[in-house]
């Protein structure tokens, strides 16, 4: 089997070229015309002599190339190792049994919902989108059978066993799984509400006590935050009276928002001063505020949704947004944002996502796509500077409504219809999958 850039065995290319050379003693017109053919054949021969067998790269050079590929994407790194045996032998295996190394996580990949009404855990496969390149692949994961997905962090899937309530963190591409103790005792002691159990959320972060990962879990309608590590015998309550409105894993730590106190805090690892900043209540009606945290291009962004009594258009009451960058350094403050650049934020109560329009032409930059079951399914808002308060004023520019489960969306202002289906995700390369299992 030959790969691009390798020589094929058989008759030498030069032999065929030399047999086509015209005799220098020939004076026929055909011989004269053969001069140009000879020059073309000689050029092809010279090009062939410059062809390299990439499988014979020096191991040191292969390691340098592999390090650069891994810095960009672990999935591309796995595909590179699957090219040939020499490359695989010259590069380290991407399987990290602890899942602690962030470089070996599929950081740029996010799980998608196909819109067909089938849960990924029931279908045992998940479609993943690379937000940097727009590449989409479908990964078959039989490990999802009997589990429920309760969170995503850096492309890792956090699973809850439906029978035993044991928690598992799964790398969808290398198939490495880290198991944690059952959370049933927390359910019985702290979370009495069945709806809160159903909406359990979890995130992966670095451990505070050992050289491994930790999983932090919280519940939307019940106060309390719990944590567990692979070496723990059970789950431990780290915050009894905190009820998180939203939380996200950012740079190995978990940050959250306490809505009743209007505070951004560091949830885990625990520290002496977990307070980050106070959220202002000068936007719209404070009782209508919703808070969302999203990681966007190495920044942590706080999105505040609010309503105004006087904002009513044809019976529809559009909401507004205020944007802040959360400074998690020693300054610990909120910095106003007036522009998202080429980024687009997808905001929802379940998940939040930031993508760039550069590799996704159907996405509009400097916008917010807001999903709410209470309003129209998806509303697109443009971000414009607001000079009065020195903050950002996010206003609706176009309202979009689903008609066929995200395959076709129709503009509510009856101006356009846009297909949102895109290219179908392709299956992961068999060699990359085989490489991940070795």
From TrEMBL:
Name of one Pfam family that matches: Beta-prop_KIB1-4
Domain KIB1-4 beta-propeller: 131-374
Entries under PANTHER family matching the protein: F-BOX DOMAIN CONTAINING PROTEIN-LIKE-RELATED, F-BOX DOMAIN-CONTAINING PROTEIN
Name of the protein this chain belongs to: KIB1-4 beta-propeller domain-containing protein
Originating organism: Digitaria exilis
